[in-house]
Write a structure and sequence with these properties.
The chain contains eight helices and six strands, in the order βββαααααβββααα. By secondary structure, the chain is an alpha+beta fold. The chain has a domain of 189 residues: Iron/manganese superoxide dismutase, C-terminal domain (minor pseudopilin epsh fold), CATH 3.55.40.20. The strands form two sheets. A three-stranded antiparallel β-sheet has the order 1-2-3, with no helix packed on it. A three-stranded antiparallel β-sheet has the order 5-4-6. A hairpin with a 4-residue loop joins strand 1 and strand 2. It starts with a strand and ends in a 13-residue tail after the last helix.
């Protein structure tokens, strides 16, 4: 049995357990989870005597508009409960969970990937991912949103889904069929081999495409290799029940028709493409360096070695 020992200056040692109800996925944050070892036993925390310094790492981020800005489509009352209570609880609980552990001081994204633990989920994951998901969700909407995107985003949607209308239908289907709590996503996917010693044979822009995903509970594309989230919708009932009761399809429709900020989605697409391009340039630079080293090594003549002789 292997345990993660999280020791701190105030002599706190925590042994964290994990849950294995999701399949294992590699992640885009290389080597983060590999430095941690986890237990399959029930979580337990042993705090030794000593002073404890409480530091709040994360803060509740407000939506990028007033709480009544999306009315009557999404009411201020919904925001007061969804953002003011649920989102705040995720932030507060996360800060409590990471206090004095090896996760303290990590970025939110690093915390998500490490705590996901390749699907063998640690306690801090759900709160960390829900904080990130909700920030991303609020920023996916705007007053007077909806309609149709333009530019490169629209071209990719039409290329990868056949038409904007077909994309909307597929996104609605994913959101409406996610059982229980969870999320539907539009993501930009790199077509890459997830093998460390392999050269990816597909490297053109045509090999990258938009995909629609759905995920249970707090899971998001950050924990899946080479997926860059662009848009999301929360389908847990607290996101819409006050305004639409149990009519999830109605909520999804007005989200797509009147709330989506296509400007935010387009900006995220450009950021994703820039990140990918920078990584590809770095990979190409390293590849050329290796080739040059190999060429130099082959071109350098091996010095002749003469055996000593007893005769002149």
């Amino acid at each position: 049995m292997k345990l993660l020992s999280l020791s701190t200056p105030d002599s706190t040692t925590c042994y964290l357990s994990s849950s294995a109800f999701l399949p294992s996925h590699s992640n885009g944050f290389q080597n983060l989870a590999s430095t941690f070892k986890f237990s399959n036993n029930q979580a337990r925390c042993i705090r030794k005597a000593g002073a404890t310094k409480v530091t709040a790492k994360f803060e509740l981020k407000p939506p990028p508009y007033p709480l009544n800005a999306l009315e009557p489509i999404m009411s201020q009352e919904t925001f007061e409960y969804h953002w003011g209570k649920h989102h705040r609880a995720y932030v507060d609980n996360l800060n409590k969970q990471i206090e004095g552990t090896d996760l303290d001081g990590k970025s939110l994204e690093e915390t998500i990937v490490i705590a996901y633990n390749n699907g063998d989920i640690l306690p801090a994951f759900n709160n960390a991912a829900q904080v990130w998901n909700h920030d991303f969700f609020w920023e996916s909407m705007k007053p007077g949103g909806g309609g149709k995107p333009s530019g490169e985003l629209l071209k990719l949607i039409e290329r990868d889904f056949g038409s904007f209308e077909k994309f909307v239908d597929q996104f609605k289907l994913a959101a409406s069929t996610q059982f229980g709590s969870g999320w539907a996503w539009l993501a930009y996917k790199e077509n890459r081999l997830d093998v460390g010693n392999a050269v990816n044979p597909l490297a053109t822009d045509e090999d990258k495409k938009l995909v629609i995903l759905k995920s249970p509970n707090a899971v998001n594309p950050l924990v899946w290799s080479h997926h860059h989230p662009l848009l999301t919708i929360d389908v847990l009932e607290h996101a819409y029940y006050l305004d639409y009761q149990n009519r999830r399809p109605d909520y999804i429709s007005v989200f797509m028709n009147k709330l989506v900020s296509w400007e935010a989605v387009s900006s995220r697409l450009e950021q994703a493409k820039a990140v990918i391009a920078e990584r590809e340039r770095e990979e190409e630079r390293k590849r050329r360096e290796e080739e040059e080293k190999s060429t130099t090594s082959e071109a350098t003549p091996t010095p002749e070695i003469f055996a000593d002789s007893d005769t002149d």
